[in-house]
């Protein structure tokens, strides 16, 4: 079960609440990490829909009464922090160059976790990842052994365990963490068949030639992003933004998040039923959840906390109308 699946179940269980807990996303994310050890960390097939699916929702919206609601032309500043040019497609980058990668790793993916960058190689249930940024990462597994080493001229800590939840036969947990001279954290984590020597070699050759990791564009594009917001999280199937004053303070998804579920659309209790370009939708402003039926057993969800990101009905409808998804 993926992070998005756990998030979906948690949100569904709490859908009847007037306001979701402010740290619901954080709680869910941490629970997944504790219980499943992230052996398939946001696997690309978990929530990303099949290739060619595109949502571009125009402002053709009517409520249950059949009469179109009034949508104001503008509300608030027109140039949000996340997109000075008005149209915003999030992008993930990784600034360290892997000089050596073990044989048999899966394809590379990129993730943004607050101010940190993550490069991940996944194949089946094995994962090799490197995280880089100003916030100290978390250990994926409780270590049964700890030792020290050096990466370049920097002291480093090595955590290992011969078993972990979900480990296949012969798999081990190996992770090494250190700080650069500039004070940024680097952590390399392996959940799979790789030896301590493999993981340490991968870690020691980060930043060396060859192999610049190309940037990765998000599957989401926003034509009308929210003013005063900054990117908080970006993964293969999710984008989150937070008010500028909250940005860069944690690694976990928080704020307003947009993602696609491989789940049949179901109207939520106490929600307002809408039609968007002929698609069913359901909006619960108080709960901070807006679902749109993409068809084929897929649902586009916008989820936010009204206590930290207060949004009115007209503003969230305009925001949703500017989303294009290509998965």
UniProtKB/TrEMBL annotation:
Keyword Transmembrane in annotation: yes
Residue intervals passing through the bilayer: 41-61
Domain of life of the native organism: Bacteria
Keywords noted in UniProt: Membrane, Transmembrane, Transmembrane helix
Protein name: Tat pathway signal sequence domain protein
Origin organism lineage: Bacteria, Bacillati, Actinomycetota, Actinomycetes, Micromonosporales
């Amino acid at each position: 079960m993926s992070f998005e699946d756990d998030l979906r179940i948690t949100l569904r269980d709490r859908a009847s609440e007037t306001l979701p807990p402010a740290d619901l996303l954080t709680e869910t994310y941490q629970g997944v990490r504790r219980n499943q050890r992230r052996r398939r960390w946001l696997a690309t097939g978990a929530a990303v829909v099949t290739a060619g699916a595109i949502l571009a929702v125009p402002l053709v919206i009517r409520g249950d009464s059949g009469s179109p609601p009034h949508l104001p032309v503008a509300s608030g500043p027109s140039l949000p922090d996340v997109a000075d040019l008005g149209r915003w497609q999030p992008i993930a980058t990784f600034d360290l160059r892997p000089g050596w990668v073990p044989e048999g790793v899966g394809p590379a993916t990129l993730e943004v976790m607050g101010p940190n960058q993550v490069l991940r190689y996944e194949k089946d249930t094995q994962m090799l990842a490197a995280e880089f940024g100003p916030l100290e990462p978390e250990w994926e597994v409780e270590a049964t052994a700890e030792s020290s080493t050096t990466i370049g001229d920097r002291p480093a800590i090595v955590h290992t365990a011969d078993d972990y939840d979900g480990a296949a036969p012969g798999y081990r947990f190996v992770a090494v963490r250190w700080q650069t001279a500039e004070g940024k954290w680097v952590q390399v984590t392996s959940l799979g068949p790789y030896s301590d020597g493999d993981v340490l070699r991968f870690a020691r050759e980060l930043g060396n030639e060859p192999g610049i990791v190309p940037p990765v564009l998000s599957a989401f594009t926003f034509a009308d992003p929210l003013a005063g917001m900054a990117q908080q999280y970006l993964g293969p199937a999710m984008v989150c933004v937070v008010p500028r004053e909250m940005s860069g303070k944690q690694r976990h998804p928080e704020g307003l998040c947009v993602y696609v579920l491989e789940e049949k659309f179901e109207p939520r209790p106490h929600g307002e039923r809408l039609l968007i370009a002929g698609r069913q939708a359901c909006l619960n402003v108080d709960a901070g959840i807006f679902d749109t039926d993409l068809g084929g057993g897929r649902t586009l969800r916008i989820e936010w906390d009204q206590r930290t990101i207060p949004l009115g009905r007209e503003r969230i409808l305009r925001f949703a109308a500017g989303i294009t998804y290509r998965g």
